[in-house]
Amino acid sequence: MTIRxxxxxxxxxxxxxxxxxxxxxxxxxxxxxxxxxxxxLIETLETRQLMAVGPRLIGVQPNNSDLxxxxxxxxxxxxxxxxxxxxxxxxxxxxxxGIRVTRAGGDGTFGLPSVSTDFGxxxxxxxxxxxxxxxxxxxxxxxxxxxxxxxxxxxxxxxxNVSIVLNSASGSLITAANLVNAINNSPVLSARLSARINGxxxxxxxxxxEANRYGSIVMRTSNDAIVQPGAVIIGDRPNENExxxxxxxxxxxxxxxxxxxxxxxxxxGITGLRNVDGSLFQPTVSGTRQDTIDFRLxxxxxxxGVVPQxxxxxxxxxxxxxxDTIVVYFDDDKLFxxxxxxxxxxxxxxFTRLTLFATRTTMSLxxxxxxxxxxxxxxxxxSTMISIDWRVRLLMHPHSVFELEHVKAERxxxx
Length: 415
Prior knowledge:
Elements: H1 2-14, H2 21-41, E1 57-62, E2 72-74, E3 80-85, E4 99-103, E5 114-117, E6 125-131, E7 139-145, E8 154-158, E9 161-167, E10 174-175, H3 176-184, E11 193-200, E12 205-206, E13 216-218, E14 225-226, E15 229-234, E16 242-247, E17 254-261, E18 290-297, E19 303-308, E20 311-313, E21 319-321, E22 325-330, E23 355-359, E24 368-371, E25 374-378, E26 383-387, H4 390-393, E27 401-404, H5 409-414
Parallel strand pairs: 2-18, 7-9
Antiparallel strand pairs: 1-3, 3-16, 4-14, 4-17, 5-6, 6-11, 7-13, 8-9, 10-12, 15-16, 17-18, 19-22, 20-21, 22-26, 23-24, 23-27, 25-26
C-alpha cells in the first residue's frame, strides 16, 4: 500500500497543471548556472594514484655516522644499521630476511676460496692466497730447493694442484713482497690464483727454513660468515619504510657486505624483501637482482693480555724469568703490514707501538719516558715481545707506575 501511495503522489505531481514545463526548464537552467559558478570557485587538484611497485633502497644509516657508501673504511663499529626505503613503502615483517649482512672472515674476499700461510717463516709474515673462481679449490704444495744463484721460485700448475718451489741457495732467498709479485705476475698461476701480504713483514726472506717447515695447504671453502642480528625492527608509523638491524655483538675488524635481495632462491636460502602488498624489492641498477654495499671496519688491534717478566725455558730446558721482557697479546687483528713499495706501515692497517712510562711520587706524571729498545712481533701468535730499556729498571721501586701506550699506524706515519 505504501508503494502504491508514493506512485500515486508522484503521478499527480508530475501531471499537476500548476507546474508547467516552462517553469521546470527555468529551474533546471538555474541549477546548472549555480553549479557552474560554484565549480569555478573550486581549484581542481592533481589526480594521485598509488603505484603498485616494490621498495627501493634510499640509503643505509649506521647509528654513529653518515650514510655508508660502497668501499668506505670506518674506524668505529656500528651497533645498528637502518635501511631506509622510499617513503610510500610499508615493509613486510615476514620478508626482512631479504636483508643480509656478511663478513669476509678475514680474507678480504666474498665467495672465493682462500687460505693463508707463512711459507716457513715461523710467523714472521702471513701471505694470503685466494682463488679467482668460486668453485676452484686448489691445493698448494710449498717446498724449497737449491735452484742456483739468482734463480727465482719455480711455479707449476697441474689441474687443481699448485707447486711453488722456493730457492734455498745462499744469497738468493726471495722476500715475501717479491714472492707475492711473482705469483700475481706468473703466466702459469695468475689466471687461477692471487696473493697478498696479510700481516707481518713484507721484507721477510723465504726459502731458508728446514724442509719440515713447508707442506701442502688446501683451499677448501670460502671464509664468509653471515652476521645474525640480535633484533630486526620495522619503524613505527610513519617510518614503516625503515628496517633497523641491531647487532647482538660488537662487529670485529673485517670487510662487510650489505645485500638487499629482490628475488627468491630456496636453494641459496634467499627470500626477497617485499612490501605488505607483496611487491618485490626493486634494485637501484636496472637489470640486477639485488643491491650490494661493501665496507671495511678498521678498529685497531685490542690488547687481550699482558704478561710482565714471563717465565720460559732456556736452551738447557731450565725455567728462567725474563726480567727485562713484557709479552703483550692482541686479538686476531694483523699487528703489522708493510706497503710493498714504500716499506712503511700501512696507513690502513693497525700497528702497535708500546711505550713504557715510569713515574715516581715526587715527579710529575710521565716525566720519565723510554721507548722500548727491542720489539719482536709474532703475527702467528698475535703477540709482541718487548725488551725493557735498562734505564727503566733503575726506576723500579714500590712507588713506580708503568703504562703501555697503544698507537695506530696513522700516528706513526706522521711522527
